[in-house]
């Protein structure tokens, strides 16, 4: 590439800089120390422009390429794992745990606050309340900080806040619901059954956080045997949000009279007194809201259950 032609050794000039700026047209500027450059001219301006454009494109490509920090971890500070920090429903009197998992805790502290009265319960592993039923539980091998509530009562229900001592503090709230399951036997507290009829005792458990592991039936405080020589005794249990247990005793006889108790493993027991009659019609069968063997709906239910058990 040739920039200067027709110059002699006696010609002295200084080329300060050459600025090429191509935007809407082609231009060139030369700053010199002297004006002795007659006959001097710039050639191949198109070549220079192409080279400049290529450099500009390379530079822009470099700017558009995202920077990658290899091996540089991003420290986002403490944060909650809400997938394992959830609302809890527990039974009255059974120890409850509210779990709070905090990642990247570092040297920060976890505290528990009760929203009902804004009472500070625990800070780290220390308890800050006179109610010693509340305690912070932490295993150093994990990132879990649990609030333990022993012998919970219904009044302990409410919102509890897990707080981390960042600046400003961060927190995650959870709902604790303390419930007391309700157990009832339909038609109680007394049932009158005709001799030879089928006794159907229906026990219903409501407001339980989970179905009972088992339901035990007793007759006069003795556990009922379903394979006894008497025969005709069976139980059908349907578990769910509302758990129902049916005790069926076919061909009722006078010895079947007595006190029957339904005892779920996670709820209070309930009892009913059964009277097997030999043709009597006591006044108790004539009034009240009890479900009686003579009612058409009751007879229909008994027929369906008898067919199911017979299968």
Tag the structure with descriptive keywords.
about 300 residues, mainly beta, 6-stranded mixed beta sheet, 5-stranded mixed beta sheet, 2 helices
Helix content: 10-25%
* Low-confidence regions: 1-45, 65-73, 286-294
Radius of gyration: 44 Å
Number of strands: 21
Strand content: 35-45%
Q: Could you tell me how far the N terminus lies from the C terminus, measured between alpha carbons in angstroms?
A: 105 Å
At a glance:
It contains two helices and 21 strands.
Written overview of the protein:
The protein is mainly β and 311 residues long. Helices cover 11% and strands 38% of the residues. The protein is built from two helices and 21 strands. The chain has a six-stranded mixed beta sheet with strand order 4-12-11-6-7-8, with no helix packed on it. A five-stranded mixed beta sheet has the order 14-21-20-16-17, with no helix packed on it. A hairpin with a 5-residue loop joins strand 9 and strand 10. The chain is elongated and about 80 Å long. The protein starts with 14 loop residues before the first strand and ends with a helix. The relative contact order is 0.11.
